[in-house]
């Protein structure tokens, strides 16, 4: 089998799949609205100023090596900074930090102006009082649809620094509302 045959087979398979019914963006979003997600703030320094945004798309990719990822729309105001960044911080918000999540999800404002954050010794901003955080190095930016999948290698965490509050509960987002997970919700 030649490379040309492989490419042709893949193309034929792709064209056949295009005849399948397609899910629209609104239907796709509706399904994910009912899937709870942890809330994080991704933050970095860009041109000597902090840049950050709320993300509910942070995922663990691999434990060895320690890799994580998030997705970001290519139209995001934070994309230019992420496209050039070497390192960043991901702060996983606590259940009382819904106002911080809302602030970092708002466009056209200085998301850092109201405080509530501190720079790591390396400069990346972390959110004060977050349940935990990672400092990570970006290893890949992959265009996927109208977004980018940003893959990172974890370099440090709040757990390795001994700063995690064991009583903190994570902030969760589901169906356009914030929720908390407590001991009383355990099954």
TrEMBL record:
Highest taxon listed in the record's lineage: Bacteria
Any Pfam family hit: Flavin_Reduct
InterPro entries attached to this UniProt entry: Flavin_Rdtase-like_dom, NADH-dep_flavin_reductase, Split_barrel_FMN-bd
Record flagged with keyword Oxidoreductase: yes
Boundaries of every Flavin reductase like domain copy: 32-180
Molecular function in Gene Ontology: oxidoreductase activity
EC code(s) of this entry: 1.5.1.-
Keywords: Oxidoreductase
Enzyme class: oxidoreductase
Protein name in UniProt: Flavin reductase family protein
